[in-house]
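Blackboard transcription, Thursday session:
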Amino acid sequence: MTVEHRRRHLLNISDLTPEDVYRILDTARALERSLDREVKKLPTLRGRLVLNLFYESSTRTLSSFELAAKRLSADTMTLRASGSSVDKGESLRDTASTLAAYDPDVIVIRHPHIGAAHLVAEATEALVVNAGDGKHQHPTQALLDLFTIREALGRLDDLRVAIVGDFLHSRVARSLVEGLVLVGATPLVVGPPTLVPRGIAELGCEVSHRIEAIAEADVVYVLRMQQERMDAAYVPSLREYTTLYGITPERVRDGQVVMHPGPMNRGVEIDPRVVDSGASLITSQVRAGLVVRMAVLYDLLTAPGLHVAMPVLEVA
Ligand code: NCD
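(Written on the board underneath:)
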C-alpha cells in the first residue's frame, strides 16, 4: 500500500470503518499504558508539525490535542481566532494557504461553520482533523466517547445508549449516533420535540420524547443545553427543561453509567449529585480525550503495517 493511497483526513466519523474505529481504540489503549510511565513522551512523531486552528472557544479539545501532539514528540503551533489575522477578517482559505507555507503534517480545526474542515482539507496538503464544525461533526469526541464506554463496560456492540437533550445544536450527538451505529450499538435519542430534529431516525437511532425511556439504556449520555447556538426559544424555560429532562439521581437506575462531553451546566441538564456519583464517567472521558487524540494523530501519520513495530505498542 502506498503512502498516497492511505492519505486520509478525519472530517466525519463516517470516514471510518468499524475496523478503523477498533484499531484507533486499541492504539489508544496501548498509549494509555505509556502514560503510567515516569517519562511520558514517546518519540513516534518527532519532526512532524501539528497545527491547531481554533475559531471557537475550547478547553478540553484544544488542550488535549496540544498535549497529544507533544506526548508523541511532534512540534505544535496553536492559532486562536483572537490575536491573529483571523479576527481581522482574513478568509479561512487565505489563512489555510498562509499556514500551509510551514508545511504542517496535520491541521486540527474547530470552526463555527459547517464544512470548514472540508474547505481546509481542499486548500492544503496537510491531513485535516475536524475538531468541531458548527453543529455538524466532532469525530474525535465520538471516538473518545466510544473508548470510554468500551473501557467501562467491556464492549460496544449490543449496548443501548440514551442521548438526552439538545440534539438539534449538537455536533457531539450527531457524531456519536453515527459512531454507535458503526460499532453495532443502539442509540436512543431523548428530548423535547423542539430539540430533536425530525428525520434523525434515518441515522439509525430510536427517538423518544419521554425521559422515562432512559431506563432501558446501559449508558445515559447528557448533552449540554447549547444556548449560544439557540436563535429562538426552544424550551419554555431552562427550569422547565430541568424538571422534564434534567438527569437527577432519581432518574439514574442502578448499573447505568452517565456521560457528558463538557462543558456542563450543573443544575440544568445534569444534577451535580450525578456528576459526582460513582455512575459518572465524565472524568474518564477527559482522560480518554488525550489518549484517543494521540491515537488519531498516530493513526494518520504512521502506516498501519508499522503498528507492531512501533515502540509504543511494546510498552505492555
Ligand atoms: C463540545 C463541543 O464543543 O462541541 N465540547 C467538547 O468538545 N467537549 C460540546 C459542547 O460544546 O457542548
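Lecturer's comment: The first strand starts at residue 49 and ends at 54.
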